[in-house]
Structures are given as structure tokens and as C-alpha cells.
Amino acid sequence: MTAQHQGIRTFPRASKVLLIEPPNSLTVGFNATVVVEPLALEYVAAAVSDITDVAIYDMRVDPMPLADALSRYQPDAIGIREGYTVDVDTVRSIATAVKKIAPNVPIIVGGHHVSLSPQDASIPAVDAIVVGDGEIPFRNLIVNLQKFGRIDNTPDVIFQDAAGRFDDKNVIVRATTSLKQFDSAVMNERPIPARHLVDQYRPSYFFLYHESPYSIESARGCIYRCNFCSVHQFHKGAYRVQSANRTLDELQRLPRNAWVNVVDDLAIQELPAAQKKQYPAGFDPMEQMAEDLTQMNLGQRYWMQVRADNVVRNPKKFEKWARAGLDTVLIGLESFEQADLDSVSKGTKSGDNERALEILNDLGIRIWGAVIIFQQWAEQNFDHLKSKVMEHKIEFPQFTIMTPLPGTGQWRDTEHQLITREPRFFDFCHSVLPTRLSPRVFYEQYASTWRTVGGGGLDRARRMMQEVSTSKASVSRFLRQYRTLSSLDSYTAGIEMLERAQSQQRPAGSPAILGA
Predict the structure, then answer these.
(1) Cα 381 versus chain centre, distance
(2) Cα–Cα distance measured from residue 492 to residue 483, given in angstroms and rounded to the nearest whole number
(3) Domain locations in the chain as residue ranges
(4) What class, spelled out in words, does domain 11-164 have in CATH?
(5) DSSP labels, 22-80
(6) What share of the chain has pLDDT > 90, as a percent?
(7) What's the pLDDT tens digit per position in 232-247?
(8) Spatial strand order in the sheet of 180-181
(9) What is the rounded CA–CA span in Å between residue 329 and residue 338?
(10) Is the pLDDT of residue 460 over 50?
């Protein structure tokens, strides 16, 4: 056990750190078609690489058993990422198993979900929880372990005290802001991600049907307030973009002709009015970056997340990005029905969706269209969605069932209606709220929506295999996942859960509420 002196827990000095990416706990879901490098851990690793020996253990793709990994790396401190609600049980299991094997090693959990709902990692096996962006607090925590063997004195770190209570007195309370900043010093000062730590895993990563992809992050946060999304809550409303020069430098470090996943929640944004005076009249840094990339001729293909209204306002800028290598965009359509858009505070018009899709199709930019399936839908709503997907040639549709997540307005509004608190069902492919349609009809409609687009047939498969970053195996894997999504058998547990909820007020034996 760890030493205790006057109520303060102490640990051995940390000289070797192991960062763990938990295994994918999704049984079904479009997200299972994307397994990319753990960029968040690469940033954290880079932040401590000059003061400790650090390694990354990616349990999604590494077949090495956990006990063997601990024996191999012999870490003095362990960090586990908890990015999604569905990871909650998996992270608890990993932490508990690690503590049994290495009881004196401090276990630190961090990530998007646990920052908004730290109670979900407040278990005996977890010693500390990092809140918010992890680079600075994790480095400070490791420094404190090295100097003092303590974890109770680090800003933005919740720690377990000697009595087993979790103390959040060191978490800095930050006010919500509307900051929108380009060439952000905070972003520019981040370390370059330690991608070399996952070189051994690179052949196992894929993005849709693209093999060995890379990821970069040029912006953090979001200025919008969609009530189903917790990004603005996590970043306290701020939106920061690193300098164009840093982004171009990072891209030059990646292989030519690589598939590059730009993980920004809001890409290709316009300058805020307050910063326009810092640049020549009419200058747009994102437009200039597209021109620079075209000149650099790296041969890379890019995937980004964008908003429909941004596309509509800036068709010329997206034309330049198409020439620069923008291949596919995830566009948050959410719905083609205005009432649905208003209900989630999207701040766009259904006409924006229609026009944005037309612009993107004309530019040859492929569309990953993200659409929400709402519990109040009737069969005609599903029919309307299917027709729109076909009409607008959405090549990669993503149908996510409305799922309230901790930290969102949806969570606050619907928490009392939840029919389950089990983290595994918060995968966006199961309804955790009651549905207007009967359970079986709802899931029949959901599965049939996936079947409408299916895999696209042999012609589509042939086109995929002609791309430089694909193979027959990667295309086959991608199409198999689509077939899984379109099978009603994939949703048996969801049907049973909804049927059970209809017959009784609350499922018997429901676990403690997430975030409570």
C-alpha cells in the first residue's frame, strides 16, 4: 500500500510512465469504423517525455494482456484515458486490475468524459483524476510525484485522500467565455505529439477504409451551444486555433500521400471580428493555409468536421480546400427538419443543410453526414431522412440516436427520463430514452435507415480499392461494419431494454446514475 503521513498519501518517485488507451467497448456503431492513433495520449506523453521514460499501451489493437504489459513496462505511474461515456466500465475494470497487480503505482484517469463527470472514476483503484486538457496538469502531477511523492498538491487534479474520499479543492474554477482566438499562444505552446510511441501500432489503425491514417489537432473548443454536445462545456466556451505555420509544419512532418484526420470539432472557421484588424483587409488565415498547402503539394488527403452554415457562407474557401486535398467532411446536419434543429439549439436552418450539401457535391468533397435520430420520430420521419440521404448523395451517413451525455443541456433536460444508466448503452446506437414508436418498430426503422445506403454495392467497393490508402481487406472490413449496423439483430439488447422500460417505471437493479 502507499505510505501515509499525517493524512497525506505518498507514492514512490515516478521515473517510468505508462499511458493506456482502453479497448473499444462498442459492440455496434459507426465509430467502430474508425480506430486512429490516440492523439490525446500522444500530447500528454510529449508533455512529460523530457522528465520521464514514457510509453503508450493501446489496448484497442495490442493483443498483449494487461498483466504482461505491466511486467514489460514496469511503470511507476499509470495514466488511463476516459474519453467517452461508454468507456466508464472498461476504465474501472482496468484500474481495478492494475491496482491488484501493482498496488503501489498511482493510477491517474483523464479525458473528456471523466472531466465532466469525475464521479464515474471515483473508485478505490483510482488515485487521481485530471480535469480538462491534460498536458499541463499531468506534467505537474508527475513533477510532484518525482519531487515529493505526492498527488494532493497539483492544480486541476482531483485526488483520493487517506480516508478514501475524492478531493477537488485543487480544481481551478474557470468562467465561461466566448473567446475565439486564432494564432493562440496556448495552442502554439503545446508539445508536438509523440507519434513515434505508437509506430508499432500504425499498421493496425484505420479510418473508414483508409489504412495507417494520421491525426492532427489544430483547434480546440467550439463557439456554438448545441445542447446535445459537451465540447463547449469542456472548453468553457472558448475556441482556440494554433498558428497556420505550426499546422503546416506538422503536416510536413507526416508522410506524403497520407490520409490525415483533422480532429478539430470546428474546422475552417472564419476570423472573429476582433482579430480581423490584425491582418490585411480581406485576409483569411484558413484560406491562405489552403493556398499554401496546394503549393506544398504533399499529396495528403484530409478529413475535417465543419458546419453547414460555414460552407454556405464560404463556398470559395471550400473550393480552395478541395484543391488543397480536402477529401471528406463530417458535416453536422443533425436533421433536415427545422423543428429538430431548433430543439437541439443548432443555430442553423434546414435550408443551410440542403445548400451546403449541394456546394460540397459540386466541389467533389465527399460527405460524412451526421444525422440525429430523435425518440419522438414517427415512421414518416425515417422515410423523410432516407429520401434526403439518397437525394444528396451522402456517401458516409452517420445515424446517431439522440443520447444525452453528462455536461450537456440534453442531460439536464432528460436525466429524469433515462431508462438505463449502463454506460455501454451510451454508444449513440441505442436509445436510453423512451421512444414514440414501439421498441421493435423503432429499431426496425433505424436498421432500415442504414440499409438504405448499405455498402453501396460492388461499384462502390471497386472505387474504394482504387484509392492509394486502401486494400481489399480494409474495404471488406468497412462494408462488414455497415452490414452490422443495418441488421436488426445488432439491437436486440436495445429492444429488450425499451420493452422492459415500458412494462415498469424503471429497470430493476439499474446501476447508480452516471455523473451522480
Answers:
(1) 28
(2) 15
(3) 11-164
(4) alpha beta
(5) PPP--SS-GGGGEE---HHHHHHHHHHTTTSEEEEEETTT--S-HHHHHHHH--SEEEE
(6) 78
(7) 999 999 999 999 999 9
(8) 180-181, 239-241, 219-221
(9) 22
(10) yes
Cell of 150: 505526492
444 is written with which cell numbers?
426496425
Nearest Cα residue to 126 out of 89, 153, 166 = 166
**CA torsion through residues 395, 401, 405, 411, sign:** positive
**Cα separation of 89 and 255, whole Å?**
37
Q: Could you give the C-alpha distances from 361 to 268, 303, 356, 358, 464, in angstroms and in order?
A: 18, 15, 9, 5, 18
Per-residue cell: 3: 505510505
Cα(70)–Cα(353) distance, rounded to whole angstroms? Answer: 49
> Which amino acid belongs to residue 38?
P
For residue 355, the number of C-alpha atoms closer than 13 Å in the C-beta half-sphere is: 14
End-to-end, the C-alpha distance of the chain in Å comes to 29
**How far is the C-alpha of 23 from the C-alpha of 456, rounded, in Å?**
30
Residue 30 has pLDDT above 70, yes or no: no
Quick check: 157 and 151 in contact, CB under 8 A?
Answer: yes
Distance CA 503, CA 91 (A): 32
DSSP 281: T
Grid cell listed for 27: 459492440
Cell of 192: 508536438
Contacts 24+ apart (CB under 8 A), 413-417: 413/227, 415/513
Q: What's the one-letter identity of residue 261?
A: N
Supply 353's cell numbers.
443543410
Chain position carrying cell 440525429: 372
Q: Name the strand (E) or helix (H) holding 293.
A: helix 285-296
Mapped onto helix, strand or coil, the DSSP state of residue 304 is strand
